[in-house]
Amino acid sequence: MSLKYVDEFRDSNLAKGLIKRIRAMSHKPLRLMEVCGTHTMSIFRHGIRTVLPENISLLTGPGCPVCVTAQKDIDAFIELAGRDDVILATFGDLMKVPGSHSSLSLEKAQGADVRIVYSAFDAIGLATQNPQKEVVFCAVGFETTIPTIAASILACQEQGVTNFSVYSANKLTPPALAALMQTDGVQVDGFILPGHVSVITGTDAYRPVFETYLTPSVIAGFEPVDILSAIERLVVQNENQSPALENGYTRAVSEQGNIKAQQVMHQVFEPCTATWRGIGDIPDSGMGLRPEYHGFDAARRFGIEMPDVPEPKGCACGEILMGLKTPESCALYKKKCTPMTPVGPCMVSSEGACAAFYKYSV
């Protein structure tokens, strides 16, 4: 028997054991929130919801960076794309997200120079290849991607690239968790904390939020066994009334995290108030460029200051991101809002809750 099949057999037996223990131990109704969009997709892909007892509900949280990007920031990207002197560089997930009156996909179809890239360094390549144009990178991400964006700005500074700038819609995870716990109607009995983000932040980043709200919390990897193990730990914490902050992803996450990545991130960016779709303004939850790097700030360079605008009428994306609704409870789901005709970003992003429900739900 090959090692591959040995591993699959072992993981299958581990998963079966975890499911059996969860069913045996769990007696009270629990609302557990997976914060990360990658967890959401893994949970659906592997059918984890279907094997849990009925008293455990899994909620999707504000862990999809495209989904939590405010409507006004989407409108800012679209306005920048409409400028003749700009090449707009973006991740592919942003292309079809509807703004107030258009989308990047529609702008590109009408002649705007919008390029899909896989990193901020790809955007720097566009800047060096097109010195007559201004290249703007749509910076949408959490702690996982912010250090790379910071490093790209440092590289531009070192290389003397002057036609590159960043529109920062970057966000930090722990402040959003605190804001959720302060929101009326939000009921979370446990957090499945993100793996990728935690590799950078370390376990320590969540400690202030945990110590304030004492919500059971477990950092998890992305394999089915990782997620089921996190759920088992959360069940134990709730049943024993012993809330804890646990690291269930020790093969990748340490207490302190990636110190070098944190240093680069904080060298270039500093915390600022950011607007989260559905949640609103959260102090110190965004990452804006420090004054010494304002020359790379696209909002300042082009005088972009967008007004707050409401979410699309009838779209429940904001409430879904807070665990207040599920996609099926949105009046637009599978009707006006589909992957081909999305109304909100939760149906667009590869990590969006509505996209996951649409793809994997019967």
Radius of gyration: 21 Å
Number of strands: 11
The largest sheet, given as strand count, sense and whether it forms a barrel, is: 5 strands, parallel
How many H/I helical runs?
16
Mean pLDDT: 93
CATH superfamily of the domain at 66-172 and 257-301: HypD, alpha/beta domain 2
Distance between the termini: 35 Å
Task: Describe what is shown at a glance.
The chain has 362 residues and is α/β, with parallel strands linked by helices.
Structure characterization notes:
By secondary structure, the chain is an alpha/beta fold. The chain has 16 helices and eleven strands. The chain has helices at 3-25, 37-45, 48-51, 65-68, 71-81, 104-109, 120-129, 146-159, 173-181, 195-201, 207-213, 224-239, 259-268, 298-301, 317-321, 353-360; strands spanning 30-34, 56-60, 86-90, 114-116, 134-139, 164-168, 190-193, 217-219, 245-247, 269-276, 280-289. Mean pLDDT is 93; it is low at 1-9.
